[in-house]
User: Fold this.
Amino acid sequence: MPFNLRITPKFWRQFEVDSPHRGFINYRRMWWQCVIVMASVCLLPLMITTVINAYQYQEVLKSENIAPADRLVSNTARSISFFLEERRSALDFVVQERSLEDLADGKNLARLLYRLKQVFGGFIDIGVIDSLGVQLSYAGPLDLQGKNYSRQSWFHEVMIRGVYISDVFMGFRGYPHFVIALKHDLEDGDYYIVRATIDTQVFNDLARPLNIGPASDTFVVNVEGVLQTPSKFYGPVLQKAQWTTDSESFHTTVKELVDPAGRSLIMGSRKIDNSPFMFVYVHETRGILAGWFALRSKLIGFFVISTIIVMLVILGVCTYLVSAVFEADKIREAVLHKVEYTNKLASLGRLAAGVAHEINNPLAIINEKAGLLEDLIHLTEDFPQKTKAHEITQSILGSVDRCSTITHRLLGFARHIDVNFETIYLDALVKNVLGFLDKESHYREIKVHVEVEENLPAIESDRGQLQQVFLNILNNAFAAVEDGGEIKIGIYSINGNKVAVRIDDNGCGMPPEHMKLIFEPFFSTKGRKGTGLGLSITYGIIKKLNGSIEVNSQEGIGTTFIVTLPVKRPA
Amino acid sequence: MRILLVDDEFELVSAMAERLNMRGLEADYATSGKAAVEKARQCQYDVLVVDLKMPGMDGMEVMRQVKEKCPDTGFVFLTGYGSEDQKSASEAAGATCYLMKPVKISVLMEKIDAAAQSACTIPGKDNSDA
Assistant:
């Protein structure tokens, strides 16, 4: 048998194996329904759990990264804010404490700058500018005394707002710095401005906390998105990083985004109070996600293996269950068939018996009248045509005999008058029956082999009826084989409580459609030669004797009958 | 030997009686159970050949009533039908033979002899359906 046929369950080939088998159940569809329902019930929760787990784990991973980012951004932005506030407050203190005359003195201013550098650090220079925009005095590395700022925008802004903190710029000095300017109103309605330049180095240090990893970057941008401190990812001071200003807020915001260079980032940002600056923290998610990817492949692996195991179990269970249902249905169908057949036989038997009885009575009259006629002819002296008359009565009696054989057979079909149990050796009985067929086998050169198991047990059964059984089967075998054919008879015991007789012939065999009908009454393939009752009666007798009969046949190869009989008589 | 043939078919019993008479037996006949009982209660018959199934009184009843008076009378039953139940019932009631119609005259005579000697056994093979 090819492999694919061996692994396919029988019900799968239901329609191919047994074409006239019009089962009310489509087992293939039943199997599919079973598999689909079970798979849905088992796999859906597994799938949902896996997806929810994955999602939750992803969320945990993200929040674990977002919380530190939030903290870092808030703290650093506050430090920078504090730094700026400190310097602004220092300048405020200066203008509150010193008079304009005091400050306009270059020596005093230089001393003040020195102190500011000492105490606060970060100051590069300091200048005092009058309301016309002219620098009255200056202390610092450059010579800016007398320089006029009145046309510069910062000058106007400080005039209006009172405080000004510039973006980082290169200016005359050629290195990045920024300016804090404060306006101080005088009692006479005039005012002056104190302007200090702050070195960005301190600023840079503040904007770069120590605890950031290689996948992270921190920097400060202004409102236009220009870098105010150098960035590891986006270049030196004054490079544009426009995209960072999309989420300008005085509160810390953390979000995921992809930067123009294609990096997937978590970005935290916060605007620094009273300044044009915004602090930005970025962290590449690749590192974070590596753990997630590992977990995801584990989850997928687990899911796939579980699915395979669950599916194998489901397929196995469904196949087993549907096969069991299929087998049970087959058995039920066979039982129904048997019951139907038995009922058919019973009603047919009643009919046959009725007919036989009705015919037997007139037949008995014909028999007696013809017998009487025969007696009279016999007793009468010779008369013309006496011989002919004698022949006629003989012919009538012969026909009556034939008729009675048929009616007795029909009655035998319904019941058997005399079941007479006696001890029988089946080998002797079969050989005895073969005796009747000796002549035929001799003429037709049919070889008959009988094999008998040693120490074959005797059985308790009815001799006459068994003779009829084997005569019927052997007659059929003789009819099936060609001249010179072969018939093998095997007699053996089964488990010590049964004896089987197996009759094989190498005759013409029969097609499967005949096999189903051979025990049906009046089914015959012999045309007028057969009554169609032989095997039907055989079947009835064997059932009555508590035995069983089985037939296998292949067209062109031969037929096998196996008759099994109990050793003990039925209780 | 005196024989009484009982069957509702007149044609059958009359011809059968004639044939038995030709063979040296004294055969009489009746065509109903009732008539048969009336005749047989004088105990002049050795054997009664009775059809099991008759209108009115059946063969078993005939035997029961006759045996009341004449327990020595032998019985042979005839039937066109027959069944296991009838057979065992008739045997239990004392019938010694049980034959199926149509029956050969020689077989019938054998059974009558056997019944007369109360030695009739189960019908021979020539009357079975083998």
